[in-house]
Amino acid sequence: MDVIFPERHYRAMSDEPKSILQTRVEERLEATGEKAAPLASKLGLSDSFIRDILRGKTKSPRAASLEILATALRTTTDYLLGKSDHAEADYEERTVPLVGYVGAGAEAHFYASGDGELDQVPAPENATSETVAVEIRGESLGALFEHWLVYYDEVRSPVTPDLHGKLCVVGLPDDRILVKQIKPSRAPGLFHLMSNTEGPILDVQILWAARVKSMVPR
Questions:
Q1: What are the angstrom distances between the C-alpha of 172 and each of 72, 81, 184?
Q2: Nearest-CA neighbor of 171 among 135, 142, 207, 129?
Q3: By CB atoms within 10 Å of each CB, which of 102, 106, 127, 186 scores lowest?
Q4: Cα(16)–Cα(31) distance, integer angstroms
């Protein structure tokens, strides 16, 4: 049997006070001209992440996801959570460390992983506290990508199956750091490294790998 609620029931639900989080996310979406679903998709969040906040279904979102959202809305997590009343005054453009120069080509090798931070560069919208950047030197991905910034985090050692077929930053035993697509070899523990414009590098050991998070021109 269908249950029919009286009109006052719907009115009571709609009149429920919004939380600070709801109100401020809604406010920042309007201020930045962003739309909930497209923004969530662009940031790599679940399709319903922002909508669930706006509907009051999510009252305590994951800290990392909220940090990504706050950056995209040009504010801080403290403001969204009501711990600060300054929507933009406390906001500063976030940066991440530039940790080296990577080769896109088979013969390019520019730095060992221990060289450390070289500079600070603008953070991508989906950056976390673990995100770092490297600069491409070489044309294996195409001349267009020379000097582009490549962002990554979640370094895997050893390589995990979810990285197979993905564009990754990879570290090799000879200290080369390359940007390549990873494919498993038939030889146990070895991989093929693929690029758009050069032949593959076959049957190599990978010390570590991280999926490319985003790429932008520098």
A1: 34, 43, 15
A2: 207
A3: 186
A4: 24
Q: 179 phi and psi, to 5 degrees?
A: -110, 110
- Identify the helix (H) or strand (E) that includes residue 119: strand 119-122
Distances (CA, A) of 191 to 106, 155, 161, 183, 209: 14, 17, 11, 6, 11
Delineate the domains of the chain, giving CATH numbers in brackets.
Answer: 7-80 (1.10.260.40), 95-217 (2.10.109.10)
The pTM score is 0.59
- Using alpha carbons, list the distances in angstroms from residue 71 to 39, 121, 122, 139, 151: 12, 15, 12, 32, 16
Residue labelled with tokens 């050991």: 205
